[in-house]
Amino acid sequence: MFDKVLVANRGEAAVRIIRALKEMGIKSVAIYSVADRDSLHVQLADEAVCVGASRPSDSYLNIKNIISAATGTGAQAIHPGYGFLSESAEFASLCAACGLTFIGPKAETIDQMGNKEHARQLMIKHKVPVTPGSRDFIKSPEEAKKVAAEVGYPVLLKAAAGGGGKGIRQVKEPGEMADAFSLAQNEARLDFGNDQMYLEKVLTNVKHIEVQVIRDSFGSCVYFPERDCSLQRRKQKVIEESPCELISESEREKLGQIAVRAAEAADYLNTGTIEFLMDQDHNFYFMEMNTRLQVEHTVTEMVTGVDLVKAQILVAAGEKLPFKQADLGFKGNAIECRINAEDSSRDFMPSTGQVDYLFLPVGNPGMRIDSALYQGMVVSPFYDSMLAKIIALGSSRQEAVARMQRLLNELVIRGVKTNKDFHLAILADSEFKQGTFTNTYLEREFLPRWKEQVDKHEAV
How far apart are CA 47 and CA 30, in angstroms? Predict the structure, then answer.
């Protein structure tokens, strides 16, 4: 087992990992930027090293400085968390070259699965169902039109190296293809340094379902109960829950077996997430694999009682998984709300400043808050706006939602604007209560009503 691990992240993600390391008796090294000098993760770690200026490119994406911090402090491994360098094959490869264990999959796997079209081809080869679309990279608008004519409009042009909703354009008819192809390709080139594109048919009225898997170096692979991540705004998840209300036990087992097949096809190591679309007939289609810990891993931990971060560390240290598939049934329903520093009444404009007062209503069973917040801290404009993850567990979905509503109503964050009221409105929505919402529901139906309510309130 490791004696010391460097955490190559910040904020809530770094705090989460440092706490797991402490419980395992492993020393932790935090990295921080100039802007994060007084951050909670810096205060909690056994050691801390400044790796650069405030901009992420100067600090949390500065591979050279991060590896120097790890070797200089005697760390044996690096946990990348999620975001930043967590899916960088270059970073994972350099860790190995420097004698450091990367707590995650192998660099070759990150590279293979990070290229969405390569991942599609691998899944097709191993009989994992994929969304209808191109069989190879699309090199021109004309080629894209031919494929679109075969699978049917509307279609999505997607960056092969994409993520986070970048490098994606929907095309509804042939006349839109040239401009959409150019825009998506240029965005992909700027954001990912890779302008390879592929095409998929748009599946309508679908659920966004994902399955957490973990595989050790002995070939043992297990899947966890699925997560419903269909509530999204601008391709970013807003609320996540586990399990999905609409999936039966037999479908859950079938989906899990598909996810394990996908992981084994990639010779996967450590934890990852297979993302699927589920149509109205409950057919599942592979979208992509995220080769890292997910932000929403918390709901999986709540429903199973498994600490995924500790499991990651054990697998990276060469140990066997401490649980079997039979141990991973769900123990209730869990839901997560992402609390962001943004003004949801002003088109979700980012909010920055000092947190003047803070009350986190924790302490009761079935409730959890993951955050790096503390009273007096300054919310910086340099990084992601997420302040906290609020998670509630109940014996039923109804109880989990009721607990979440209580948590949100009692939560107090003053000094910056948050999207708390937006979450409360979603939880009170009839479509949400039924669990029948799809991946377009939030933007197409709920948000227009929300904006109308906000406008009426301001007019009073």
Answer: 6
3-state secondary structure 340-391: ECEECCCCCEECCEECCEEECCCCCCCEEEEECCCCCCEECCCCCCEEEEEE
- What does the buried/exposed string (b/e) look like for 204-239 if buried means 16 or more CB atoms within 10 Å of the residue's CB? eebbbbbbbbbbbeeeebbbbbbbbbbbbbeeebbb
The one-letter amino acid at 79: H
pLDDT digits (tens, 9 = 90+) for 87-107: 999 999 999 999 999 999 999
> 412-423 pLDDT, tens per residue?
999 999 999 999
Q: What's residue 299's pLDDT?
A: 98
Q: Is residue 411 a part of any domain in this protein? A: yes
Single-letter amino acid code for the residue at 378: V
Q: Any idea what the CATH number is for the domain that residue 232 is in?
A: 3.30.470.20
What does the pLDDT look like over 380-405, one tens digit per residue? 999 999 999 999 999 999 999 999 99
Q: How far apart are CA 318 and CA 298, in angstroms?
A: 24
Domain membership of residue 215 (yes or no) is: yes
By residue count, the chain amounts to 460
Domain count, the chain: 3
d(CA 169, CA 184): 6
Tens of pLDDT, residue by residue over 206-243, are 999 999 999 999 999 999 999 999 999 988 999 999 99
Q: Which of the residues are catalytic?
A: 292
DSSP 188: H
Nearest of 239, 267, 420, 249 to residue 334 by alpha carbon = 239
What pLDDT sits at residue 186?
92
- Kindly list the distances between the CA atom of residue 90 and the CA atoms of 33, 102, 163, 365, 407, in Å, as whole numbers in the listed order: 21, 11, 17, 41, 41
Whole-model pTM: value is 0.91
Do residues 313 and 20 make contact, with C-beta atoms less than 8 angstroms apart?
yes
Of 57, 82, 103, which one is at a domain's C-terminal end? 103
The residue among 166, 153, 136, 147 whose CA lies nearest residue 202 is 153
